[in-house]
Amino acid sequence: MVSSTTSSTNNNASTGSSIISALGTGSGIDTNKLADQLTEANKKVQADRLTAKKTLLETQISDYGLMRSSLSKLEAAAAALGSSDTFNAKSLSVPDTKLLSITKLDAKAAAGAYQLKVEQVAQSQSISSGTFGSMTDPIGKGKLVIRLGEWNSALNDFEVDSSKSAGATITIDDSNNSLTGLRDAINKAGIGVSASIVGDGGSYRLLLTSKSGAKNEIEITATEDAGALGLAKFNFNETTRNMTQQQEGLDAKVRVNGLLVSRESNQIKDVIDGLEFDLFGASLTETVSISINEDKSVGEKAIRDFVTAYNTFKTEVEKLTGFDSELKDFGSLKTDPLAKNLTQGIRNFLSSAVPGLADGFTALSSLGIRTERDGSLKIVEAEENTGFRAAIDKHYDLVRDLFVPKKTSSAANIELTKYTAQSKPGTYDVVITQQPSKGKNTGAAMAITFPLDTTGKDYNFKVKLDGTETSVITIPAGKTYATAGELAADIQSLINLDSSLKEVKSTVAVSVDAGKLVFTSDSYGSTSKVEFTAVSSDMADLGISVGTGTAGTDVGGTVAGKAAFGYGNVLLPALGTDAEGLSMTVQPGATGGKITFSRGLAGGLSNLVNDFLKSSGVIKDRETTITKDIKKVEDDETALNRRSDAYRARLMSQFQAMESIVRSLNSTGDFLDGILDRLPFTAKN
User: Fold this and answer.
1) Domain segments of the chain: what residues?
2) Closest by alpha carbon to 267, among 423, 103, 96?
3) Average pLDDT over residues 59-66
4) Nearest residue to 574 (alpha-carbon basis) of 563, 566, 583, 582
5) What is the assigned CATH class of domain 124-250?
6) Distances (CA, A) of 460 to 195, 455, 475
7) Is residue 399 pLDDT above 90, yes or no?
8) Residues 630-649: what's their mean pLDDT?
9) Is the pTM of this model over 0.90?
């Protein structure tokens, strides 16, 4: 019921009318009550109409909330179908053993039987310093260059692991000139080397422990400040080893179906794709038999759950857009065109072929899921060779491809890596017009012979890689390089250890070509450059001089006949095209090919539902419109109340005038009553 308000003037008039009635004067009519009844009768039709309209609009807002909830549940069921892990689920069989423990089984693991024999567990290298009388006494100032690599058994030849940029330069100054200061600086560097101080009968030693693995062993080279010697006590390199090795680094060794593989850690993550396990012991006699099996029940259950979820969604939404048999009434969205279009859009999508799929199973009907007359989905379990059971048992890979997003390329050197909500499924022609390349700097022919002894030489330089300049890089003095390749590996390691480069994650590869050192950035594109900004005079021996090399190039090409944008070796289709949002990684040598993209049924449905549910989606727009309509109804109610108040005020004014006339007539009547008895000649006395 719409409430009304009454002005103070009307209240005063009503009070006056009531007093007059109580005194027995006037007409005797309850004009206050009569005015209320007339006012209510006057506005009832309009008020009822506005109330009904507002109630409907508020119910529609609520019901759109219910529709959102139903859509979210449907999307959650579809999301499970869109994950490749759902259809690649595996089960595992492994015997009891003390040699290893399975820690993870991914869906991507290949089904099969595996025979594992653990021949050696990984071990960390540890080295210790000489003794110190105090943990706080000065140890010297300068720099310690710590690198990781592999020592030979005699500890007189160290091969740096150039595949890593692990290591650091530790600076010891007045702020940390002590054994504890050195320990803390090494630990803070986060290079995979753990430093600790071990008490030894009243004295102290620095103990360094690397990560496990044969190529994670430690090399230390000290550069001492002239006035504060002492850091040379921590040298552990080919020339000087003032620290003592307590144990060597070892790789784990495991035979997989007879094939021997080595890993630097006892946490084995990449020997059997998708299977991870930890090693605890070794045995030359025990073999661990592991069986990985395909588990189709996970995918089958997800499909059945989705069918149930859709039918539930259909039932819930039909109560909003059709006749609700429980409430014996039609839903508030029965005449709302958007609600009907949303549900029809989902029904049409599920009954159509999945965009981007040209062969195999292309629709739900392909695997025995049919749409009934009432719009619900039904799983046909057995129908010759086309029922659901046959699809799961005989064509499981095609079932997976129907639901899971699929990205393919006809060219091995063009990989489709990404898509967005704007990307439209389909097949697109890709033509490469410019090859991606890396920045490169090739030195002159080296004026030296190998083996190279760096004693007495000053080999140092600064290099700017992809726009980031290093500090001074120094090739160790007093070191012998047997080959040019060994020298190149050492230089690569020293450059990649620079803190400025590590901060921006830029790395360089150093190789030898026809007696020349070649420095190649590991990144592609026009910003990829290798420039020497400063070199010592002796660097001329190595063919290195100040100068800029050749910048890299960005990939160029077209997608579906439209010029694409290239950055590094990534090619992006033009904005506004059907292929917008796709991303391709292009390797050198690619000339072109065809890329095909499908979201799968699950991804396509999720994309459709997200368009409905997003903050700028059609449901939000409709809710905004309904909210504005409710505000307009409220404004109309306010206006109606104002008009009703004015109408009642007019009635009360008219009633007061009437009462005034009646009072006047009553007064005249009282005067005339008995007048004949008082007039001359007619009076009784």
Assistant:
1) 8-78+617-678, 90-121+253-294, 124-250, 407-435+555-598, 438-548
2) 103
3) 88
4) 563
5) alpha beta
6) 29, 13, 6
7) yes
8) 88
9) no
